[in-house]
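During the first year of the project, the team set up a workflow for recording each protein of interest as an amino acid sequence followed immediately by a discrete structure-token representation. This format lets reviewers and collaborators read both layers of information side by side without switching files. As required by the reporting guidelines, we include two representative entries from the current panel. The first entry is reproduced here exactly as it appears in our internal archive.
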Amino acid sequence: MTGSRTLGIRAFALVLPLILFLALFFVWPLVSIATTAVSDNEVARAFPNLGRVIDEWDGVSPPTPAMQEALVADIRETAQTAMGDAVRRLNTQTSGFRSLFGRTQQAVERAEGAVDLPSIDERWEDPVFWNTIRSALPPYTTRFLLGALDLQRGEAGVEAMPPDQSVHRQVFLRTIGISALVTLFCALIGLPFAMLLAVTTGWVRQVLMAAVLLPMWTSVLVRCMAWLIILQKDGVMAEIIRTLSGLREAVPLLFTRTGVLIAMTHVMLPFMILSIYSVLIAMPKSLMMAAASMGARPLAAFRTVLLPLAMPGIVSGALLVFMTSLGFYILPALLGGGDDQLISSFVANYAIRQANWSLASALGLVLLIVTVAIFALYQRLSDRLARR
């Protein structure tokens, strides 16, 4: 009994580093993102006094003297950094809040004792700004998750945002569409290349393999800068297209959807080729000859013999390319135009420029859910292919 317990302790000690690694670099970031996506405590930290008295207000009548006194006290007691974060958060919900609060804060700092807020700015008589503060006081909210899907809470419940404010759903569809096109192009190019790689031998295979591996060993940023030169108006690719098509003017490729697709396909193509090649290299080389000996034409042999056997590699490569393309940031940002940016650009914009970590986390969480759903679909498809 003691020996079995000792073996169990030793086995647990061996896997403990792996468990700690997964907890630190996988579980904890996911929990942090999920928590940030539903957290909204910036306003509660900045307005503790107002939070204790505003619940007694009916939300329709003008603000009470107690509410005004509490707000003035919060302005004087809250640190400037915390107040700035709260004001930025409130301004994203109600336009004009930053200018209103900046003017009010200056007047309160100059005054002594009680302050009549409507005398500083008549907008303080409008219940809209007070309701904005009250709606943001709860520490947890679904506002950011709904905003990531272009939804909001209205009088009738959850409803769609106005068309002029709806952008995230369109960006998600654009991200999925571009990723799907890149996956399709990689499959169309990668399958013939992997077939050629599998049937060749000697130095020819080494050269072809080097053509696949060398781009993978080069930094994505370096490849992106190379594509900036190639795709420019007087670049190599523009000259080739103009020569072949007989056009007088160069076809614009830089800062277009076409340029983004070309560059992303070039970056992701090795993953597709290697996934398919790993399956083809394990297949007996006599299968196609056997099919030909039984009267099958080359196209029919490819469709009925080679393609079904290569399908696991195609599916796994498609999953790898598609899921990686969903998170592309550098290539679309540098090579694409305003209508070619993927969801990762919006996540970076909210996190870095607007300091709206909650909305950035909500977008990342939605993208994670989409990725997990795609992976589950892949698992189901793989199981079906394995049973055949």
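The second entry, processed by the same pipeline in the following quarter, appears below.
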Amino acid sequence: MDFAKMRRIMVDSQIRPNDVTDPEIVSAFLHTPREAFVPKSEQSIAYAEYEIETSEGRALWTPRDIGKMIKSLEPEPSDIALVIGAGAGYETAILSRLCETVIALEESDELVDELTARFGTLGLDRAVAVQGDLREGLADQAPFDIILVCGLIEEAPETWFTQLAEGGRLGAAVPHGRDLGRARVWTKAGETVSYREVFDCCPPRLPGFEKPKSFVF
């Protein structure tokens, strides 16, 4: 199977046509083997326009959606980034080609071990995996220029926003209507955090970030 050819087709048909044309971002996608981040049984569709489950509660976004989200976060070579709910680490790998350092945060020791091994095998020396509570973020390594949340969430914990650097950006997908989602980017300026909605999408949910159900008589 010619994965390099499939990768080029993905970029030419799903990334560039969706207004993701920055040369550095395009190069990051071209040089990151998506097939290395999915189960072997799914490698034949690694570059298709599908969300692919990588482990329980974790899945890759479609190439189009993660491309547009990373573009919206405006990564810079000097940025320090945190990826929350990193799963198999594909998004971390992409960002590691665009930022100075990227930390992949996961709750499971098993996932962290798998991430560490995968990053080592692929030679991603600017990516590191850390175990911790997703809701708490990673205060001892803050502040972060970028925080990327890998999934759709109903609410973002305040702790994440306190870990943003001045001018820092936090990207996540939030529900919009019954079966839709919308990508949102929050930006910190002084004591204020404001957001803008950047595109429609519907990535898999990230478990544990549902709003509490209100009691109704």
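For the second entry, the following points were noted during internal review. The beta strands are 52-55, 58-60, 80-84, 101-106, 127-131, 144-152, 164-175, 181-189, 192-201. The longest strand covers residues 164-175. Both points are flagged for discussion at the upcoming steering committee meeting.
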